[in-house]
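Write out this protein's structure.
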Amino acid sequence: MQTALNGLASGQSYIIPCGTYTGPALSGLSNVSLIGLGGQENTSVGNEYAISPNPIVTCVTFTYATNLTMTNSYNDYIKGITFDFLRGGFGFSLNTSSMNNFDNLTIRGAGSAAGAIPAFQIKTNGSTSAFNSAHNHFRGFKVEALDLTSNGIVGIKVIGAGTPNTGAISTDNSFQMWKSLAMYRPV
């Protein structure tokens, strides 16, 4: 899979069949699509943590035994993938990346105690505006199954760098989180 991703030309898509895979590195992608084939509609209410699940089940899972950092990625589209960090104290960082779109994305089993490593973070890797992380859009974004035995797990963290108002920033990123299924019923 990594070889195929590295060989994608601008404008190309990589379609991933249902399954669990060792997660690939995602840095340096630009103008490409990574699409997991969709799963069945999830009509259950609640799970082991009494939180209503997202209405669409992703059937593509990438597993990671280390942190995943997506750096210098621009105008990518990633859809229908669960990123599972196996409760190993690792997380997903979107670093100095802009104009990406993520649909039906789940972050599972991520984050470390006392918030040292958040489950998911958007950050910058420099001190000037050339390093902004901006205009990334997350629709159907979900963070689930954090390690509930630890204190201080951080789900989502958004940070800039450098001097406030003059350094690199993380701005204009939008999230549409999954709501309880009850929220989708007409009133």
